[in-house]
Amino acid sequence: MRYMSCMNDMNAPTRYVTLLSAAMALVAAMLLAFSSEPALAESGIPIPAPAGSEWRIVAGYNTGTHNHHDGSDPHAIDIVRIDAPTDWTAVLAPVDGTISYVDANCLSIEDINGYAHLLCHLEPSGHLHRNLQVNVGDRLGQVFPAGYDANGGIAHIHYAIHTTSGGGYLRDTIPFTGIYALEGHELLWHDEFNLHSGLEFRSTNTPNRISVILSPPTNPDPEPEPVSTWTIPADAPVGGWRTVGVHRNTSVAGFFASLDAPLNELSLHDGPGDTRIRFDPNDPTSAEVAIRPLRPGQAVWVRVNPDAPWLPAPPPEPRQVTVHLSSGANLISWQGPDRDIADALQNIHHLSHAYQYDPYSGSWLFWSPDAPDFLNTLERLQSGDALYIVVQTGSVWTQLP
């Protein structure tokens, strides 16, 4: 069985699902977000809060509010305290530098390299003013409680490192890497949605902590990951719709761009509503869909340009993922190794059947644990295959490697 599935027109899945549902009725009569820890750097900056306090990133890189379209701050993070209430927690300077900006709820510290460390959603101390020299561990203020300062109903600290144009004016952000690694952890940049959300840290911020910001970072932006080569098979299907498995945390727009393919649009399948949500990078009305998160184990439809042969590259390696299955049909992708269908799906609760369109044979492949052999034409899954899983009751499925 080849890797992938496709359809010739967008209404085809509905017609085939109807036919398959009818077939299953006859058969019955016969018989439902990573992340590994970031790498440790040799140096870094502390959490801007008292030593020993514990914090978690609740909004990471590239979210709905941390992006290039919202003040050019895709590398900003929002952190909350997890060992005590965040409300009114003291905010301490994370670096040595000069206050370059301060207002009723934000301040910035310009370090020796000219980068501004922006801290927001706090009540600055009354003694702060522009050009005031501060050092690591100096008290700057306290975190506003939920509902203050448009903090979205969550007490938190917004922290970002900006380039500047002087006079307190902020420009683009840089990631927390190199000498700016947060508590020694490299928060590398990728275009994944809400990257680094969930990571936890213990602050080492004390007045006697030596600032490691001594020289400009040689390369604040990490080298891009090498892109594996993938040759489109000579007999790849031409044009039309394909189902594509998702094998990394990203956003809809990020995933669409990463496919690097002759595609017109992408469509998400909403299982509970049995509807489709369209994303077109050239359509402004798709903006809200663009930032929707995608997780490993999900799958989407993509429409290939007419007359263009294309198949997506398989995932880099098999992995274990957990996906949520809603009652009814769920479009998912198999992330484990190549495996017989019965073994791959053995631990799904309340499984009814599975089906997948094979563009090479021009037919739908079908499998059910209760169906006779002559109906079970879906025999094996390859890593990355997208298919529909139909369950009678919502459940959680962990794909075993």
Describe this structure in words.
This protein is mainly β. It folds into 2 domains: 5-32 and 236-399, no CATH class; 54-202, Glucose Permease (Domain IIA) (Distorted Sandwich), CATH 2.70.70.10. The chain is built from 4 helices and 27 strands. It has helices at residues 12-30, 252-258, 287-290, 341-344, and strands at residues 5-7, 54-59, 77-81, 90-92, 97-102, 106-110, 116-120, 122-124, 133-134, 139-143, 157-164, 170-174, 200-202, 238-245, 250-251, 263-270, 275-279, 293-294, 299-309, 321-325, 328-333, 339-340, 351-358, 363-367, 380-381, 386-391, 395-399. Strands 2, 3, 5, 6, 7, 9, 11, 12 and 13 form a 9-stranded antiparallel β-sheet that branches. It has a 5-stranded antiparallel β-sheet with strand order 1-14-19-16-17. Strands 21-26-23-24 form a 4-stranded antiparallel β-sheet, with no helix packed on it. The relative contact order is 0.17.
Q: How would the blueprint of this fold be written?
A:
Elements (H helix, E strand, L loop, with lengths): L4 E3 L4 H19 L23 E6 L17 E5 L8 E3 L4 E6 L3 E5 L5 E5 L1 E3 L8 E2 L4 E5 L13 E8 L5 E5 L25 E3 L35 E8 L4 E2 H7 L4 E8 L4 E5 L7 H4 L2 E2 L4 E11 L11 E5 L2 E6 L5 E2 H4 L6 E8 L4 E5 L12 E2 L4 E6 L3 E5 L2
Antiparallel strand pairs: 1-14, 2-3, 2-13, 3-11, 4-10, 5-6, 5-9, 6-7, 7-11, 8-10, 11-12, 14-19, 15-18, 16-17, 16-19, 20-27, 21-26, 22-25, 23-24, 23-26
